[in-house]
Amino acid sequence: MAVWAIAWAGSKPVASLSDGLLARHIGIKVTGVLLALPAMLPIVVLIALLVLVFAIQRWNPHGSRLSSQRERLTSQEWFQRTEQKMTATAAPTESVAKASINA
Q1: Domain range summary for the chain, segments of one domain joined by +
Q2: Where are the alpha helices (DSSP H) in 1-103?
Q3: Which of 31, 47, 58, 63 is the most buried (most CB within 10 A)?
């Protein structure tokens, strides 16, 4: 862990200089967006995956060629895992013991 901390601290000046150079040449707002993109990428991928699975679930093709494409898509492991996680319900939890309330 100490080696990681030293490596991180050693890269800070380089990151700071590149930050400043980018901001000077392309603007502060564009630099902010550009540096935020790697953090936003996983969220965008997850949302796109959910939208894709919903679209495939609702897709009702009429041709045999389109039906076989839908079957191919729904048989993919990524589709089945995403669909399973979307429809999974939380495990029931134990409730707190009920105490009688005498008013």
Answers
A1: 8-85
A2: 2-26, 28-58, 64-74, 77-87
A3: 31
- What contacts 22, CB < 8 A, 6 or more positions away? 31, 34, 35
Of the pLDDT bands very low, low, confident and very high (cuts 50, 70, 90), residue 42 is very high
Say which DSSP state 95 is in: P
pLDDT at 90: 61
The pLDDT > 70 percentage for the chain reads 84
Which residue is it, tokens 């995403």? Answer: 82
Cβ-count burial 40-50 (b if 16+ within 10 Å, e if not): eeeeeeeeeee
